């Protein structure tokens, strides 16, 4: 399978988070800001463009984040955040904590998730185009009824991940680690697996190896 081509753009950062004015946080659109070791509380629907986030912890009150474009996240904590119906474009997540994060019905294009802790994350009913997952822990995650296009999984911990009703044709699982997955048998034809993974998938189709 050809690797997904992520168009990650390094944002320009003329403004530091500490220099933001109250009005900047309330107008709903934040551009080219470097957030570092901060706690950020969303007060209304917010769009981020060209920002970097380093060791940032997010909280949600009455607001909801609607879109991230051209953003980079390093060592941030998004655990249990609600990103339902959120759009992510040309972003990168590095060594972040995404335990129980809800991405239901979200849209992802040209993203890279690298070395994140993502147990119990929920991508159900989301669309993922040109997205790479490299060296993440994503156990007991949900990917139900997703639309995949050029999605790459490399060396992830995927045990008990649920891909029910998601078409996995062309997905390469061979470098990933799991004992069991939840998949729809008719929708996992054409996947790539390792020899060690073969017994699990042959059982799905009532094939006995003797």
TrEMBL record:
Please give the superkingdom of this protein's source. Answer: Bacteria
Q: Which InterPro entries match?
A: 5peptide_repeat, PA_immunity-related
Q: Which SUPFAM superfamilies match?
A: Pentapeptide repeat-like (SSF141571)
**The name this protein goes by in its record:** Quinolone resistance protein
């Amino acid at each position: 399978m050809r690797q997904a081509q992520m168009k990650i753009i390094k944002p320009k950062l003329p403004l530091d988070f500490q220099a933001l004015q109250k009005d900047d946080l309330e107008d709903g659109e934040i551009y080219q800001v470097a957030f570092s070791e901060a706690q950020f509380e969303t007060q209304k629907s917010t769009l981020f463009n060209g920002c970097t986030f380093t060791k940032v912890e997010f909280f949600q009150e009455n607001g909801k984040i609607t879109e991230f474009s051209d953003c980079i996240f390093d060592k941030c904590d998004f655990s249990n955040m609600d990103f339902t119906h959120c759009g992510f474009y040309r972003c990168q997540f590095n060594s972040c904590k995404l335990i129980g994060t809800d991405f239901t019905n979200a849209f992802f294009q040209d993203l890279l998730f690298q070395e994140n802790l993502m147990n119990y994350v929920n991508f159900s009913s989301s669309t993922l185009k040109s997205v790479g997952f490299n060296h993440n822990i994503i156990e007991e995650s949900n990917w139900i009824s997703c639309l995949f296009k050029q999605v790459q999984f490399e060396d992830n911990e995927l045990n008990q991940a649920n891909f029910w009703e998601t078409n996995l044709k062309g997905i390469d699982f061979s470098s990933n680690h799991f004992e069991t997955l939840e998949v729809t048998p008719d929708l996992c034809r054409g996947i790539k697996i390792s020899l060690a993974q073969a017994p699990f998938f042959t059982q799905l189709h009532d094939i006995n190896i003797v």
